[in-house]
Design a protein that fits this description.
With 157 residues, the protein is of the alpha+beta class. It has helices at 2-19, 39-46, 85-92, 142-156; strands at 51-53, 62-67, 72-80, 101-102, 110-113, 119-124, 127-135. Helix content is 31%, strand content 25%.
């Protein structure tokens, strides 16, 4: 069951990240998605050891970290935005029949979160930033971890 939840979260994240529209590539503006969070940030938020994974596609504006025990995934997407991509990304994300709701994230101009708290999407200036957290651990709660990591990322974009 736990592997299914993590796999489903990863699938939604990959689909949404692939659909992130933006007028500028993250690299062109000098923002590295792997620079907005560190393994130390992840370990402090979760109490778990994380390993940054090599990019499957160096041109993809994403960074991934995994943990072995408990099994977990953190992913950050970082793209430019043309003003409409924040809302387009928000509308493209659903968990079952549930739509994302507004979220408060320090440093973000506007933000939304999935009902289970595993994904936070936000607009920070002219950037769209998406943080995903999935773990087999039940503590700390996913929503609290994702929001805390999103606030760190927002402060570094």
């Amino acid at each position: 069951m736990t592997r299914w939840v993590i796999a489903a979260t990863l699938a939604v994240t990959v689909l949404v990240g692939a659909g992130c529209s933006g007028s500028d590539d993250a690299g062109e503006q000098g923002s590295d998605p792997c620079a907005v969070l560190t393994t130390a940030d992840l370990e402090q938020a979760t109490g778990v050891v994380w390993t940054q994974q090599p990019a499957a596609d160096p041109a993809e504006p994403a960074c991934r970290w995994t943990s072995a025990t408990p099994s977990g995934l953190v992913q950050v997407f970082l793209t430019g935005t043309d003003g409409s991509s924040f809302e387009e990304n928000r509308q493209s994300i659903r968990v079952g029949d549930a739509e994302p709701s507004d979220a408060e994230v320090e440093g973000a101009d506007e933000a939304f979160a999935t009902p289970d708290g595993s994904l936070v999407g936000m607009r920070v200036g002219d950037r769209y930033v998406q943080v995903t957290y999935a773990s087999a651990a039940t503590e700390p709660p996913a929503g609290a971890v994702t929001t805390a990591l999103a606030a760190i990322a927002a402060g570094r974009v």
